[in-house]
Amino acid sequence: MQRIIQINIGGRVIPIEEDAYMALKDYIASLERQFANEEGKDEIIQDIEYRIAELFGIRLSGGAAAIDREDVKKLTDTLGHASDIGGTRHLPVRYEAQKQQQQNSTRSNNGARRLYRNPYDKMLGGVCGGLGAYFDVDVVIVRLVFVACFFLALIGPIAYIIAWAIIPLARTPEELSYMGDGEPMNFHDIARNMGEELQDLKKRGEQMSRELRDFFSKKK
Amino acid sequence: MTIENTESQMRKGLLELCILGIIRKEKEAYPSDIAEQLKLAKLVVLEGTLYPLLTRLKNAGMLDYRWEESPSGPPRKYYSLTGEGLKFYTQLRNSWEELSTSVHHLTNTI
Protein backbone atom coordinates (compact mmCIF):
# COMPACT_ATOMS: atom_id res chain seq x y z
CA MET A 1 0.00 0.00 0.00
CA GLN A 2 1.30 3.43 -0.86
CA ARG A 3 0.11 6.88 0.03
CA ILE A 4 0.05 9.26 -2.91
CA ILE A 5 0.94 12.85 -2.20
CA GLN A 6 0.95 15.94 -4.34
CA ILE A 7 4.08 17.95 -4.81
CA ASN A 8 4.78 21.20 -6.56
CA ILE A 9 7.91 20.99 -8.66
CA GLY A 10 8.87 23.45 -11.37
CA GLY A 11 5.48 25.11 -10.99
CA ARG A 12 3.65 21.86 -11.69
CA VAL A 13 1.53 19.79 -9.36
CA ILE A 14 2.61 16.17 -9.58
CA PRO A 15 1.02 13.18 -7.80
CA ILE A 16 3.76 10.96 -6.44
CA GLU A 17 3.95 7.91 -4.18
CA GLU A 18 5.38 8.62 -0.79
CA ASP A 19 8.57 6.55 -1.01
CA ALA A 20 9.22 7.89 -4.49
CA TYR A 21 8.88 11.37 -3.01
CA MET A 22 11.47 10.56 -0.36
CA ALA A 23 13.87 9.29 -3.02
CA LEU A 24 13.33 12.40 -5.11
CA LYS A 25 13.87 14.63 -2.11
CA ASP A 26 17.16 12.87 -1.34
CA TYR A 27 18.23 13.27 -4.95
CA ILE A 28 17.55 17.01 -5.02
CA ALA A 29 19.25 17.43 -1.65
CA SER A 30 22.33 15.66 -3.02
CA LEU A 31 22.33 18.04 -5.99
CA GLU A 32 22.12 20.99 -3.64
CA ARG A 33 25.11 19.70 -1.72
CA GLN A 34 27.00 19.12 -4.94
CA PHE A 35 26.47 22.67 -6.15
CA ALA A 36 26.60 24.31 -2.73
CA ASN A 37 29.66 26.42 -3.57
CA GLU A 38 28.55 27.20 -7.08
CA GLU A 39 27.61 30.75 -7.98
CA GLY A 40 24.63 29.73 -10.10
CA LYS A 41 23.45 27.03 -7.71
CA ASP A 42 19.82 28.12 -7.46
CA GLU A 43 19.52 28.44 -11.20
CA ILE A 44 21.04 25.02 -11.85
CA ILE A 45 18.71 23.37 -9.35
CA GLN A 46 15.74 25.21 -10.82
CA ASP A 47 16.63 24.13 -14.36
CA ILE A 48 16.91 20.54 -13.22
CA GLU A 49 13.61 20.73 -11.33
CA TYR A 50 11.93 22.09 -14.46
CA ARG A 51 13.29 19.18 -16.42
CA ILE A 52 12.12 16.72 -13.76
CA ALA A 53 8.64 18.27 -13.91
CA GLU A 54 8.67 17.92 -17.67
CA LEU A 55 9.74 14.27 -17.63
CA PHE A 56 7.17 13.43 -14.95
CA GLY A 57 4.52 15.29 -16.93
CA ILE A 58 5.29 13.12 -19.97
CA ARG A 59 5.12 10.00 -17.80
CA LEU A 60 1.74 11.02 -16.33
CA SER A 61 0.24 11.90 -19.68
CA GLY A 62 1.37 8.44 -20.80
CA GLY A 63 -1.22 6.98 -18.43
CA ALA A 64 0.47 6.61 -15.05
CA ALA A 65 -1.68 7.54 -12.04
CA ALA A 66 1.26 8.70 -10.00
CA ILE A 67 5.04 8.78 -10.08
CA ASP A 68 6.55 5.75 -8.35
CA ARG A 69 10.02 4.72 -7.26
CA GLU A 70 10.80 3.15 -10.60
CA ASP A 71 10.15 6.48 -12.34
CA VAL A 72 12.42 8.31 -9.92
CA LYS A 73 15.12 5.71 -10.50
CA LYS A 74 14.82 6.12 -14.26
CA LEU A 75 14.98 9.88 -13.82
CA THR A 76 18.15 9.83 -11.72
CA ASP A 77 19.74 7.43 -14.21
CA THR A 78 18.94 9.81 -17.08
CA LEU A 79 20.05 12.98 -15.34
CA GLY A 80 22.94 11.37 -13.49
CA HIS A 81 23.84 11.18 -9.84
CA ALA A 82 25.02 14.32 -8.11
CA SER A 83 28.64 13.23 -7.92
CA ASP A 84 28.73 12.48 -11.66
CA ILE A 85 27.32 15.76 -12.91
CA GLY A 86 29.44 18.25 -11.01
CA GLY A 87 31.00 19.37 -14.27
CA THR A 88 34.56 20.66 -14.34
CA ARG A 89 34.76 21.66 -10.72
CA HIS A 90 33.48 18.34 -9.49
CA LEU A 91 34.48 16.33 -6.49
CA PRO A 92 35.99 12.89 -6.99
CA VAL A 93 33.37 10.56 -8.38
CA ARG A 94 33.35 8.25 -5.43
CA TYR A 95 32.98 11.03 -2.86
CA GLU A 96 29.23 10.65 -2.43
CA ALA A 97 29.45 6.89 -2.13
CA GLN A 98 32.15 7.14 0.53
CA LYS A 99 30.17 9.67 2.49
CA GLN A 100 27.14 7.42 2.33
CA GLN A 101 29.18 4.52 3.64
CA GLN A 102 30.53 6.56 6.51
CA GLN A 103 27.06 7.63 7.53
CA ASN A 104 25.84 4.08 7.41
CA SER A 105 28.69 2.76 9.49
CA THR A 106 28.09 5.38 12.17
CA ARG A 107 24.47 4.51 12.35
CA SER A 108 24.90 0.75 12.60
CA ASN A 109 27.80 1.32 15.04
CA ASN A 110 28.85 -2.37 15.23
CA GLY A 111 27.71 -2.46 18.87
CA ALA A 112 30.67 -0.37 20.05
CA ARG A 113 29.99 1.99 22.90
CA ARG A 114 30.80 5.66 22.51
CA LEU A 115 31.60 8.38 24.98
CA TYR A 116 29.35 11.43 24.86
CA ARG A 117 28.38 14.13 27.28
CA ASN A 118 24.93 13.26 28.53
CA PRO A 119 22.47 16.11 28.00
CA TYR A 120 19.78 14.45 30.14
CA ASP A 121 21.88 13.72 33.22
CA LYS A 122 23.98 16.73 33.95
CA MET A 123 24.97 19.20 36.65
CA LEU A 124 27.29 21.39 34.56
CA GLY A 125 28.21 20.00 31.16
CA GLY A 126 27.07 16.39 31.37
CA VAL A 127 30.64 15.07 31.60
CA CYS A 128 30.04 12.91 34.69
CA GLY A 129 26.74 11.67 33.31
CA GLY A 130 28.47 10.60 30.11
CA LEU A 131 31.40 8.97 31.89
CA GLY A 132 29.04 7.14 34.26
CA ALA A 133 27.03 5.75 31.37
CA TYR A 134 30.18 4.82 29.47
CA PHE A 135 31.83 2.94 32.35
CA ASP A 136 28.55 1.65 33.83
CA VAL A 137 29.24 3.41 37.14
CA ASP A 138 26.72 5.29 39.24
CA VAL A 139 26.88 8.97 38.30
CA VAL A 140 26.97 9.99 41.98
CA ILE A 141 30.26 8.13 42.45
CA VAL A 142 31.77 9.75 39.37
CA ARG A 143 30.73 13.16 40.66
CA LEU A 144 32.20 12.49 44.15
CA VAL A 145 35.51 11.40 42.59
CA PHE A 146 35.61 14.59 40.56
CA VAL A 147 34.83 16.78 43.58
CA ALA A 148 37.52 14.98 45.63
CA CYS A 149 40.05 15.44 42.80
CA PHE A 150 39.14 19.08 42.66
CA PHE A 151 39.85 19.68 46.36
CA LEU A 152 42.95 17.49 46.42
CA ALA A 153 44.30 19.48 43.52
CA LEU A 154 43.68 22.71 45.43
CA ILE A 155 45.67 21.52 48.48
CA GLY A 156 48.98 21.59 46.57
CA PRO A 157 48.99 25.23 45.49
CA ILE A 158 47.51 26.45 48.78
CA ALA A 159 50.06 24.55 50.87
CA TYR A 160 52.83 25.93 48.66
CA ILE A 161 51.66 29.51 49.08
CA ILE A 162 51.39 29.12 52.86
CA ALA A 163 54.86 27.54 53.01
CA TRP A 164 56.20 30.37 50.91
CA ALA A 165 54.85 32.87 53.39
CA ILE A 166 56.06 31.20 56.58
CA ILE A 167 59.44 29.67 55.66
CA PRO A 168 62.19 32.29 55.82
CA LEU A 169 64.57 32.83 52.95
CA ALA A 170 68.25 31.94 53.44
CA ARG A 171 69.93 35.32 53.20
CA THR A 172 73.45 34.87 54.55
CA PRO A 173 76.17 32.36 53.60
CA GLU A 174 75.77 30.92 57.09
CA GLU A 175 72.09 30.28 56.64
CA LEU A 176 72.77 28.74 53.25
CA SER A 177 75.27 26.34 54.82
CA TYR A 178 72.76 25.42 57.55
CA MET A 179 70.31 24.44 54.89
CA GLY A 180 71.80 21.08 53.92
CA ASP A 181 74.57 20.53 56.48
CA GLY A 182 74.36 19.73 60.15
CA GLU A 183 72.93 16.75 61.97
CA PRO A 184 70.11 14.89 60.22
CA MET A 185 66.86 15.62 62.03
CA ASN A 186 65.17 13.16 64.36
CA PHE A 187 61.66 13.36 65.68
CA HIS A 188 62.53 15.27 68.84
CA ASP A 189 64.49 17.83 66.91
CA ILE A 190 61.62 18.30 64.56
CA ALA A 191 59.19 18.75 67.44
CA ARG A 192 61.52 21.21 69.16
CA ASN A 193 62.16 23.10 65.96
CA MET A 194 58.48 23.25 65.24
CA GLY A 195 57.96 24.81 68.68
CA GLU A 196 60.66 27.38 68.03
CA GLU A 197 59.36 28.07 64.58
CA LEU A 198 55.86 28.55 65.90
CA GLN A 199 57.15 30.97 68.51
CA ASP A 200 58.99 32.77 65.78
CA LEU A 201 55.90 32.79 63.62
CA LYS A 202 53.87 34.24 66.46
CA LYS A 203 56.42 37.00 66.90
CA ARG A 204 56.44 37.72 63.22
CA GLY A 205 52.66 37.73 63.09
CA GLU A 206 52.54 40.26 65.88
CA GLN A 207 55.09 42.39 64.15
CA MET A 208 53.14 42.19 60.90
CA SER A 209 49.89 43.25 62.53
CA ARG A 210 51.69 46.17 64.21
CA GLU A 211 53.10 47.26 60.90
CA LEU A 212 49.71 46.98 59.24
CA ARG A 213 48.15 49.04 62.00
CA ASP A 214 50.82 51.70 61.62
CA PHE A 215 50.36 51.66 57.88
CA PHE A 216 46.62 52.21 58.07
CA SER A 217 46.74 54.80 60.83
CA LYS A 218 49.34 56.72 58.83
CA LYS A 219 47.08 56.62 55.84
CA LYS A 220 44.26 58.13 57.83
CA MET B 1 43.57 5.10 -12.58
CA THR B 2 40.89 3.46 -14.73
CA ILE B 3 40.11 3.68 -18.39
CA GLU B 4 36.57 4.92 -17.61
CA ASN B 5 37.93 7.76 -15.53
CA THR B 6 40.37 8.92 -18.18
CA GLU B 7 37.74 8.65 -20.89
CA SER B 8 35.27 10.65 -18.87
CA GLN B 9 37.91 13.35 -18.25
CA MET B 10 38.51 13.57 -22.00
CA ARG B 11 34.79 13.86 -22.71
CA LYS B 12 34.31 16.48 -20.03
CA GLY B 13 37.11 18.58 -21.43
CA LEU B 14 35.53 18.61 -24.87
CA LEU B 15 31.93 18.95 -23.77
CA GLU B 16 31.95 22.75 -23.76
CA LEU B 17 33.21 22.84 -27.32
CA CYS B 18 30.55 20.35 -28.44
CA ILE B 19 27.72 22.17 -26.67
CA LEU B 20 28.73 25.49 -28.19
CA GLY B 21 28.97 23.77 -31.58
CA ILE B 22 25.47 22.33 -31.30
CA ILE B 23 23.98 25.65 -30.23
CA ARG B 24 25.76 27.42 -33.08
CA LYS B 25 24.42 24.95 -35.59
CA GLU B 26 20.85 24.96 -34.23
CA LYS B 27 20.86 28.73 -33.54
CA GLU B 28 18.79 27.96 -30.44
CA ALA B 29 18.78 24.83 -28.34
CA TYR B 30 17.04 23.38 -25.34
CA PRO B 31 19.15 21.26 -22.92
CA SER B 32 17.46 17.96 -23.67
CA ASP B 33 17.84 18.64 -27.42
CA ILE B 34 21.54 19.10 -26.82
CA ALA B 35 21.66 15.83 -24.88
CA GLU B 36 19.84 14.14 -27.77
CA GLN B 37 22.29 15.51 -30.35
CA LEU B 38 25.26 14.41 -28.27
CA LYS B 39 23.77 10.94 -28.01
CA LEU B 40 23.24 10.80 -31.78
CA ALA B 41 26.91 11.69 -32.25
CA LYS B 42 27.77 8.80 -29.89
CA LEU B 43 29.08 11.20 -27.26
CA VAL B 44 27.16 9.89 -24.30
CA VAL B 45 26.82 12.24 -21.37
CA LEU B 46 24.41 12.35 -18.48
CA GLU B 47 21.77 14.97 -19.12
CA GLY B 48 22.33 16.45 -15.69
CA THR B 49 25.88 17.39 -16.67
CA LEU B 50 24.54 19.95 -19.11
CA TYR B 51 22.69 22.14 -16.61
CA PRO B 52 25.67 23.34 -14.58
CA LEU B 53 27.75 23.73 -17.75
CA LEU B 54 25.11 25.82 -19.50
CA THR B 55 24.61 28.00 -16.45
CA ARG B 56 28.36 28.59 -16.18
CA LEU B 57 28.65 29.45 -19.87
CA LYS B 58 25.67 31.77 -19.56
CA ASN B 59 27.11 33.50 -16.47
CA ALA B 60 30.41 33.90 -18.33
CA GLY B 61 28.56 35.80 -21.06
CA MET B 62 28.96 33.12 -23.75
CA LEU B 63 25.30 32.22 -23.93
CA ASP B 64 21.96 33.94 -23.77
CA TYR B 65 18.56 32.37 -23.29
CA ARG B 66 14.87 33.03 -23.66
CA TRP B 67 11.90 31.28 -22.11
CA GLU B 68 9.48 29.46 -24.30
CA GLU B 69 6.17 27.98 -23.22
CA SER B 70 5.98 24.25 -23.70
CA PRO B 71 2.82 22.24 -24.30
CA SER B 72 4.12 19.30 -22.30
CA GLY B 73 5.24 20.97 -19.10
CA PRO B 74 7.00 23.94 -17.57
CA PRO B 75 8.50 26.62 -19.82
CA ARG B 76 11.80 25.73 -21.49
CA LYS B 77 15.02 27.67 -21.67
CA TYR B 78 16.31 28.06 -25.20
CA TYR B 79 19.99 28.95 -25.33
CA SER B 80 21.74 30.88 -28.09
CA LEU B 81 25.33 32.07 -28.63
CA THR B 82 26.35 35.63 -27.85
CA GLY B 83 29.00 37.43 -29.92
CA GLU B 84 31.54 36.60 -27.27
CA GLY B 85 30.35 33.00 -27.24
CA LEU B 86 30.92 32.73 -30.95
CA LYS B 87 34.46 34.05 -30.58
CA PHE B 88 35.09 31.65 -27.73
CA TYR B 89 33.76 28.77 -29.82
CA THR B 90 35.97 29.68 -32.81
CA GLN B 91 39.02 29.80 -30.59
CA LEU B 92 38.23 26.49 -28.92
CA ARG B 93 37.57 24.98 -32.32
CA ASN B 94 41.01 26.06 -33.60
CA SER B 95 42.75 24.79 -30.46
CA TRP B 96 40.98 21.48 -30.92
CA GLU B 97 42.14 21.23 -34.54
CA GLU B 98 45.74 21.85 -33.51
CA LEU B 99 45.51 19.53 -30.56
CA SER B 100 43.96 16.71 -32.50
CA THR B 101 46.56 17.05 -35.26
CA SER B 102 49.33 16.86 -32.67
CA VAL B 103 47.75 13.91 -30.90
CA HIS B 104 47.13 12.15 -34.17
CA HIS B 105 50.68 12.74 -35.29
CA LEU B 106 52.17 11.57 -31.99
CA THR B 107 50.09 8.46 -31.55
CA ASN B 108 50.65 7.42 -35.15
CA THR B 109 54.43 7.85 -35.21
CA ILE B 110 55.42 6.55 -31.81
**What is the tally of beta strands of chain B?**
2
Q: What radius of gyration of chain A results from the CA coordinates?
A: 39 Å
Across the major sheet of chain A, the strand order is 1-2
Quote the distance from N terminus to C terminus of chain B: 23 Å
TL;DR of this structure?
The complex is a heterodimer of chains A (220) and B (110). In chain A, helix 1 runs parallel beside helix 3 and helix 5 packs across helix 6.
Describe this structure in words.
The complex is a heterodimer of chains A (220) and B (110). Chain A is mainly alpha-helical and 220 residues long. In chain A, 64% of the residues lie in helices and 5% in strands. Chain A has helices at residues 18-34, 41-61, 69-79, 95-108, 127-135, 139-166, 173-180, 187-219; strands at residues 4-9, 12-17. Chain A starts with a strand and ends with a helix. Chain B has 110 residues and is of the alpha+beta class. Chain B contains four helices and two strands, in the order H-H-H-E-E-H. Chain B has helices at 3-26, 31-40, 47-59, 83-109, and strands at residues 63-70, 73-81. Chain B has a two-stranded antiparallel sheet with strand order 1-2.
